[in-house]
Structures are given as structure tokens and as C-alpha cells.
Design a protein that fits this description.
The chain has 402 residues and is an alpha/beta fold. 37% of the residues lie in helices and 14% in strands. It has a domain of 160 residues: Response regulator (Rossmann fold, 3-Layer(aba) Sandwich), CATH 3.40.50. β11, α10 and β12 form a beta-alpha-beta unit. The chain is globular. 57% of the residues are buried.
């Protein structure tokens, strides 16, 4: 999650759940069986509708969590009927201290992911401190230095790219402090000791796949789509490519426009509305606008309303603010996983590292995903995935606390 230098406002969303063996039941039918060729045309639309139906009433997850997310297709997803997390126990030591750094408190996904890790650590009886990275490189460095000065047993970060913190991660390693990064990716860096010990994901790439899947299902495979996107982060560039590939196989879909803006711009609702207005005026055929995350996606709908246009705006990462907008009918859809659940999975990796074991790693995390539409979105925007499955108790059992 490589932030651009000197840009304010870190990253919004994205995140984490550990798992080694997945128990995912009820495949999505004949169209959902793995095929050598990716689904296209009517088969793609049919499979998309099954995924959306399952993900709206419950949770869906990758049938094979070891398959790289960016290579997942609609047929790789299935309804979740039971625990999708790890089965191998990792007994948690007692009396530990963890520092958790959020990329930005103002970005709900960052803050909620970090608080998930804090809650999990405290459930183990550990000390846990939340630190705000304040959406800037300087803030990240200051927060990491504060964490180091506290001499913790582990450090967890959210959306802090290792390329920008490699010096400080190396300092943590020199003190035998493991560092787990949530919603970050391995990078090519100069300092070989500056890599994270574990990379936890809340499967934001899968969110992108499901975002496109919803549009295809909702439009019956005939969507006229525009992207209001951010290319300032490598993972978002990859996700856009993923969505473009799936729309290319939707034979009657059309990508009308791709408009780029930066994260700092997304934080300005006035500028977002101006950008959306210009895009919609250029292309009167646009029916759907897809966002890379939820920040001020509502401004796109304001632009459409002012122009008298019937446009469906869709987002991902399920930030509570945007789920609430879905409930109000401002956004048509949002999809994402539980940030709390992801935070707990980060602590699972911390426990395994403290035990001298390998963390589960990117391939082993398989956070279930859920669609929010107007019919099921809570007015508050807050939804406890634990109501579908009690992931907290499942982790505490793995950690020897239940």
C-alpha cells in the first residue's frame, strides 16, 4: 500500500483475518465450479447473481484461500457456513504489550482495523495502545518512534508501507520486536531487515472483485460503467486492472470513463462533486460509478442528483459511514469484510511470531465478505459480523483462553 510522498491523508481502507484451513460449504452451483477458462457472457452474469445473493444474505469467501486474490474469479467464491479461520492452535503467552499504529484516525477503515487489533490484544489480557499516524509520512514516523520507545513485545501497523518505514522496522527487529502490517504488501526495499514479519489482509482485492460482480449482477450484464479512481497506491492500481478484466468478459458491459484523483482530493467533498459533475457531463450514458474506497463517494451521487441523472454509485471496504449512506439510498452498494475480525487475525499472527512459529501469511487469510444494499444496511452503518459467526470465541479457543 504504497502512499505517495508528501500526500496528506494516509490510506482508508482495508485489512485482515488469519486462516490455514478453510471450511467453506455449499458451492454456488454448476456455474461456480472451477473452470480452466474464466467465465464470460451469460455464464458470468449467472454466477455473479449467485455470489451477490449469497453475499447479501450472509458471507462469502474464497474456496481456495491460497489462490492469489488478484487471480480470483466469481467462480472461486462460495457461501460461508462455518469457521473460515485457522485451525492450528497458537497458545498466547501472558503479560505482553502491543503498540498498534493506524494510518489515520480520520479514515474509518484504518482506525477500525487498528482498534480490532487493540480489542483482540486486550481480550488476551495484554496491554494495547492505539497510535494515530495522522495521515502523513511524518505522522507515521513519529508514531512508530513512539511505539519503539514504549519497548513493546510487538508492533502492529495499518496501511503503513514498509518502503517508507524500513529504517524503523529494522530498528524494531534489532530489538527483537516483531512487526505485523495490516493491509500492506511486500515491497522491494534497500534494507533487507526493513520488511514486515507478516502481511495481513482483509482481502481488499476480493472487495474489488465483488464490487464489479455486484454491478454485473445488478445490470444483468449490461452496465455502462465509469471509475472515479485513485492510482496513488499500487494495490489500487492492481485492483482496477482486476475490475477491468472482469468487465471485459461481460460482453454487453462497457467501461465509459476512468477518472483519476488522489486521496487528498477524495477527502474534499466539494472537489469530489466537481470531478463527478465534469465526468457525468462528458458521458451522459454512465449508469454506474465505481469508487476505490468509500471516502466521499456520496459526493458523486450529489453530482448526479444535481444533474437529474439516475446513477448508481458503488463502493467497497464497508466503512460504517458509507454503509449508513447505503441505508439512506445515497450509495447503491458497499462490500467488505469485518475490520474487527481482521484486527483479531493480525493478533493471531503476533501470537504465532511470539511462539517462534511462522505467521499464516497472505495466502492463509480468508476474511469472509458481505454485501450491503439498502434492504440490509443498518442505519448506523455499523454491523457486527460476529452475529453471523462468533469469530472472537473461535480465536480465543485457538489462543488457549477458552
Amino acid at each position: 500500500m504504497d502512499l505517495r510522498h508528501k500526500r496528506r491523508l494516509g490510506l482508508l481502507g482495508a485489512l485482515v483475518v488469519a486462516l490455514v484451513a478453510v471450511v467453506v460449504a455449499s458451492p454456488l452451483g454448476a456455474s461456480a465450479k472451477p473452470t480452466q477458462q474464466p467465465l464470460s457472457g451469460d455464464a458470468l452474469v449467472a454466477a455473479a447473481k449467485k455470489v451477490v445473493a449469497a453475499g447479501t444474505t450472509g458471507l462469502v469467501a474464497a474456496k481456495d484461500p491460497s489462490k492469489p486474490e488478484l487471480k480470483l474469479d466469481v467462480s472461486d467464491l462460495a457461501p460461508v457456513k462455518s469457521w473460515t479461520g485457522p485451525k492450528e492452535k497458537a497458545i498466547a503467552p501472558k503479560g505482553k504489550k502491543v503498540e498498534v499504529i493506524s494510518c489515520a484516525t480520520v479514515a474509518p477503515a484504518c482506525a477500525n482495523l487498528a482498534m480490532g487489533a487493540v480489542h483482540a490484544a486486550k481480550a488476551l489480557g495484554w496491554q494495547a495502545t492505539y497510535l494515530d499516524g495522522k495521515a502523513s509520512i511524518q505522522g507515521y514516523v513519529a508514531a512508530f518512534q513512539t511505539a519503539l520507545n514504549a519497548n513493546p513485545d510487538a508492533i502492529v501497523t495499518v496501511a503503513l508501507p514498509e518502503s517508507q518505514l524500513q529504517t524503523y522496522i529494522a530498528q524494531a527487529h534489532a530489538k527483537n520486536i516483531p512487526v505485523v502490517g495490516i493491509t500492506v504488501t511486500p515491497e522491494k526495499i534497500a534494507n533487507p531487515k526493513g520488511h514486515y514479519d507478516s502481511y495481513v489482509t482483509f482481502r481488499e482485492d476480493s472487495n474489488a472483485l465483488l464490487e464489479a460482480t455486484w454491478v454485473i449482477a445488478d445490470s444483468n450484464g449490461k452496465a455502462k460503467v465509469a471509475f472515479d479512481w485513485d492510482k496513488g497506491y499500487p494495490f489500487l492500481v492492481n485492483e482496477l486492472a482486476l475490475e477491468k478484466r472482469i468487465f471485459a468478459r461481460c460482453t454487453e458491459c462497457k467501461i465509459v470513463d476512468i477518472t483519476y484523483r488522489e486521496f487528498a482530493t477524495a477527502a474534499n467533498p466539494v472537489r469530489m462533486q466537481q470531478i463527478a459533475t465534469a465526468m457525468l457531463q462528458r458521458h451522459p450514458e454512465i449508469e454506474y460509478v465505481i469508487c476505490p474506497y468509500g471516502l466521499n463517494c456520496g459526493s458523486i451521487q450529489l453530482a448526479a442528483k444535481a444533474l437529474g441523472r439516475n446513477v448508481k454509485v458503488v463502493a467497497k471496504n464497508a466503512d460504517p459511514n458509507n454503509v449508513a449512506l447505503v441505508a439512506k439510498g445515497v450509495l447503491a452498494e458497499d462490500v467488505g469484510s469485518s475490520t474487527e475480525w481482521s484486527g483479531w487475525s493480525a493478533i493471531d499472527d503476533v501470537v504465532r511470531l511470539m511462539n517462534g512459529k511462522k505467521p499464516l501469511g497472505l495466502a492463509a487469510h480468508n476474511v469472509p465478505l458481505h454485501y450491503f444494499v439498502k434492504s440490509n444496511a443498518p442505519a448506523s452503518g455499523r454491523y457486527d459480523y460476529g452475529k453471523i459467526f462468533d469469530f472472537r470465541t473461535a480465536y480465543l479457543k485457538l489462543w488457549g483462553r477458552k
